[in-house]
Amino acid sequence: MKKILVFTVISLLSIMIILPASAKEGNGDKSFWKEKIQTMKENFKNRIGQKRDKKEKPEWSTDKDALVLRGSLLAVGNDYVTVKSEPINVERESKNLEKVFVSGEYTAQITENTKIVRQFNGTSTLAEFNVGDKVHIVMKKENDVYVAYLLKDMSIFHPKRYMKATVESVDSDNNTLTVNRGKKSAVVTVDTDTKIQVEGQTATITDIKAGDKVAVKGVVNRNLKTVFADIISVFTGKWNAWRK
């Protein structure tokens, strides 16, 4: 998106440069300017189209035998998932007639070729999936076994911004914090990879106490109402003075 905006700005600047230089050539002829502008628009569309063509389409996007399943995760293992589908929304799926949407309970094998992502398409792993999560699967039956091309967990995502909240309680034995954001509460889970800082200094969960202001970044799971923290920054001053 940023590249498109940059190219648009460059195109507009080019028009501004070309206009004075072409003033004598056009001699005020409206058709001349229309042709110039139309040519630039077509060149812009062609460049965008070429970029889109360069992107390789995944195998499942063109496989007519691929099946699509949307539903809740019933079980997750090291190399498989079991999903129970939601009722098929005919109106919604009518826009995707090239795919076959299925309902029921299915178990799909996960291979090294399966693309596993979170909502908004961030790369994920099965370790981030939990029973009850809402998932999408694109799969195909091979030798009586369903194999997943794509597995997407719609319940998890990794926001770019920090989540700011106030600590309600600390459970250092289970490595969790309960935090409050207005009327909403969430659990923040800490592991050995979580970086904790108090006023910029390296710390541990035992250094956090109820009432502290924290800024948290990590994987959010809407189903569990939990944040699996990558970073926790404890800030004791005013929020408007906190910057990251």
Distance between the termini: 24 Å
Helix content: 10-25%
The number of helical runs is 3
The overall number of domains is 3
Please indicate the percent range of residues in DSSP E strands (runs of 2 or more): 35-45%
- Mean pLDDT across all residues, rounded? 82
Name of the CATH class of the largest domain: Mainly Beta
Largest sheet: 5 strands, mixed, barrel
Strand order of the largest sheet: 1-2-4-7-6
Radius of gyration (CA) equals 26 Å
The chain-level structural class is alpha/beta
- Per CATH, the superfamily of the largest domain is Copper binding periplasmic protein CusF
In CATH terms, what is the fold-level topology of the largest domain?
OB fold (Dihydrolipoamide Acetyltransferase, E2P)
Number of strands: 15
The unreliable regions are: none
Query: What is the helix/strand order?
Result: HHEEHEEEEEEEEEEEEE
What is the overall shape?
flat
Describe what is shown at a glance:
The chain is 22% helix and 38% strand. With 244 residues, it is of the alpha/beta class.
